[in-house]
TrEMBL record:
Organism encoding this protein: Streptomyces noboritoensis
InterPro entries: Glyas_Bleomycin-R_OHBP_Dase
Superkingdom of origin: Bacteria
Protein name: VOC family protein
Length: 114
């Protein structure tokens, strides 16, 4: 089974409110915000943007998350370096981490087991 495109863009920032306003000015709508300085924004049916605030001593990061329809049916190919196999997340999905040939880290996200 293959991935099905981009599920999300995860961003870390030093000011989630300013970052959320930036995306809202691009047409994204705030779907929900947490009480720990993070938020999920959507613009139509495409990938969502999740913004989380990090301390000033951490560099802001961007991570693309690829969609996998069924974690149990996903078989990594021989050229895929798995850093972390699928695990349940605290936000209701299953996530795997892989590394590409240039050393970039990618996340694969699947629905939680039903």
């Amino acid at each position: 089974m293959a991935t099905e495109g981009i599920e999300a863009v995860f961003l870390t920032t030093h000011n989630w409110g300013k970052e959320a306003k930036f995306f809202q000015s691009l047409g994204f709508e705030l779907e929900f915000a947490t009480d720990h300085n993070s938020a999920l924004l959507r613009n139509g049916e495409g990938a969502y943007v999740f913004i989380a605030e990090v301390p000033e001593d951490q560099e802001p990061q961007t991570r693309l998350v690829l969609r996998v329809p069924d974690a149990d049916a996903f078989t990594p190919g021989p050229d895929l370096e798995v850093i972390k196999p699928f695990e349940d997340t605290h936000y209701g999905t299953r996530e795997m981490t892989v590394r590409d040939p240039d050393g970039r880290v990618w996340s694969l996200q699947a629905p939680a087991k039903s």
